[in-house]
Amino acid sequence: MVRQGNIDNPPKTPLVPGFECCGIVESVAENTHGFEIGDRVMAFMNYNAWAEVVCTPVDFVYKMPDDMTFTEAAAFSLNFVAAYMMLFEVASLREGMSVLVHSAGGAVGQAVAQLCSTVPNVTVFGIASCFKHTSIKDSVTHLFDRNADYIQEVKKISTDGVDIVLDCLCGENTGKSLSLLKPLGTYILYGASNMVTGETKSFFSFAKSWWQVEKVNPIKLYEENKVIAGFSLLNLLFKQGGCNLVKSAMDKLLILYEQKKIRPVVDSLWALEEVKEAMQRIHDRGNIGKLILDVEKSPTPLMANDSTETSEAGEEEEEPEGDNDSKERMPFIH
Amino acid sequence: MVRQGNIDNPPKTPLVPGFECCGIVESVAENTHGFEIGDRVMAFMNYNAWAEVVCTPVDFVYKMPDDMTFTEAAAFSLNFVAAYMMLFEVASLREGMSVLVHSAGGAVGQAVAQLCSTVPNVTVFGIASCFKHTSIKDSVTHLFDRNADYIQEVKKISTDGVDIVLDCLCGENTGKSLSLLKPLGTYILYGASNMVTGETKSFFSFAKSWWQVEKVNPIKLYEENKVIAGFSLLNLLFKQGGCNLVKSAMDKLLILYEQKKIRPVVDSLWALEEVKEAMQRIHDRGNIGKLILDVEKSPTPLMANDSTETSEAGEEEEEPEGDNDSKERMPFIH
Where is the segment annotated Disordered (chains A, B) (predicted)? Predict the structure, then answer.
């Protein structure tokens, strides 16, 4: 969305995109506590993460666990923090509940599926493009084609609906998703990838989507006992002073990582020079999980699934890795 | 609202109002398990609770704790279940959070204040008419006049807003209350007592309030990281099959009652013949807590605060007590 200009107050160009990265600390400011030169870290950035060297406030930086690779670290923070806060803080995922996640094949979708598996007896309904089904079918309980009448399919399995809907789309899907909620169920809109409707910058197509979003009457929510929420991790971090809330989620996520209960899904690694091809892959919805820009990689795409060995060769690199954003993560760019 | 005809699909008149009661079991249907004749019980009713004898499905009936009086039992269920489910299931009240409650002097408001005191370090901002302040000032942390600019007053104390807003009003207050939410904060609309605008039945005034409720754009919620919810306990119970959810809340509330952490606030006891005067007291917003219709009481109002001894004299009565609804509870009548 940043690339297409589809955001409210886009920063002035030229700009460096990217909201998270990982690498090794090269220097620290005076009176900085908790970090030393040489520490392996991951960090949130308010833009500028697609770079060889980055500078960010200490509140946005986290030490990497010893057994986490740089490839994993570059794909960890935004996706898992967003998924965790939506499931456990905005909604209250508990044993026996059901979750519907749109873009189940995206990086946030895959993080949602993994976090759901940490709670007993949670049913996950995933919506994804057909061609991703083979790759992700084991990560969710039920998988539906985004072009099918998934509302009816879900209701066949769970007649009274679902407890939580995570929707990274917007527009016509909002009303459909709301109708699927059980009483006391929570619908969370965490982005608007439907807005990315064309290859070229198009404010008009954005505005059209924006106004097509159905507004919600609070009295209807009252009658139906429903909850509707919005979640923007970037706004929380960079506009609303939510560092401490995010830190609390990260602490819990790092424990889950060390218990080997969660692990980021990486689609592919790309050299900085290949950013155009990487973006095209996202635009075509071709990715499963996250694309990583590796500043020390030579310009030949390497699929994560092809050879885990080789992708791990990048682990010892001393330069930070930026990452780009899958379409599913686009909503966070704001 | 039932009395004024201010609901969507009012039942045909003549009707008997009332949604909860308590008393002693007179008879049970065949194959009814868990209850015997002579049990002291409280029950939810889909209308018809203002009566000497009532009949309701077993799923809506709960045994009274041994040390609970009938006066307490008649005021316990709806208020505490609504307050509990809103604070702990729709929102996730945790240590250190802040809660703003409108109509703090009403029965639900008082239940909210008591439940907040069971969680460490929770700040409660109460909004109530000035003349109630002396009576309820000890139940909340900060108390504001409903006619004052309480938004500014709350922001003076908590510059970044509050975590949870419980709003039994609607109309102009919705937008004001939403603006008070912290990021990730939850606004819950649990009724619409603003709709009770006149003494006479007035569909027009109802419809006008209805349309004045500001609709909410989900994208605004996304940008601001906010949650908006509606809660109607009666719809949950009688239209949406929520018995099991309510039972789970009741079980927890009865433990809190037995631990002496919560206790229903009773405004006054009235004879069935005094129902008109009792309703006027509610309409004038005169009550603190709940008004009880006591079927064995003679027609002279007895203020609960005047003599606890005397009000407890009704405990051994064998007839069920209906209860009427304070204005703050009117929203549940739907």
Answer: 299-334
Mutation target to probe the A interface, by most A beta carbons within 10 A, among B219, B228, B237, B244 is B219
- CB-defined contacts A:B, below 8 A: 145
Taking residue B294's Cβ as centre, other Cβ atoms within 10 Å add up to 23
Is A184 close to B218, i.e. CB distance below 8 A? no
pLDDT tens, residue by residue, A136-177: 999 999 999 988 889 999 999 999 999 999 988 654 567 778
Give the pLDDT confidence of B252-276 residue by residue, as tens digits.
999 999 999 999 999 999 998 898 8
Whether B230 sits inside 8 A of A226 (CB atoms) is yes
What is the spatial distance between Cα B209 and Cα B216, in angstroms, rounded to a whole number?
Answer: 16
By the 10 Å C-beta count (0-12 exposed, 13-18 middle, 19+ buried), B204 is classed as exposed
Nearest CA in chain B to A184: B90
pLDDT at position B321 is 36
Residue the block writes with tokens 């986290």: A62
Contact B90 A170 (CB under 8 A): no
Tell me if A230 and B229 make a contact (CB, 8 A cut-off): no
What is this model's ipTM?
A: 0.84
Per the listing, tokens 């209308």 go with: B47
Q: What pLDDT digit, counting tens, does each position of B280-293 carry? A: 888 787 788 889 99
Residues of chain B with C-beta less than 8 angstroms from the C-beta of A8: 223
Tell me the nearest-neighbour CA distance from B217 into chain A, angstroms: 5
**Cβ neighbours of B183 in A, within 8 Å:** 235-236, 240-242, 245
Contacts of B180 (CB under 8 A, 6+ apart): B100, B151, B154, B155, B161, B162, B165
Q: Which of B174, B224, B231 lies closest to A230 in CB terms? A: B224
Distance CA A166, CA B61 (A): 36
CA distance A251 to A101: 24
Q: Which domains does chain A have, with CATH numbers?
A: 2-293 (3.40.50.720)
DSSP string, B110-165: HHHHHHHTTSTT-EEEEEE-GGGHHHHGGGSSEEEETTS-HHHHHHHH-TT-EEEE
Tens digit of each residue's pLDDT (9 = 90 or more) over B209-250: 555 567 888 888 998 999 999 999 999 999 999 999 999 999
Residues of chain B contacting residue A195, judged by C-beta atoms under 8 Å apart: none
- At B61, is the secondary structure helix, strand, or coil? strand
Give the Å distances, CA to CA, from A219 to B128, B169, B306, B334: 22, 11, 39, 12
| Of residues B115, B112, B239, B264, the one with CA closest to residue B188 | B112
Which position has the token pair 């819950």? B188
Q: Give dist(CA A288, CA A296) in Å, integer.
A: 23
Q: How far is B322 from chain A (nearest CA, A)?
A: 25
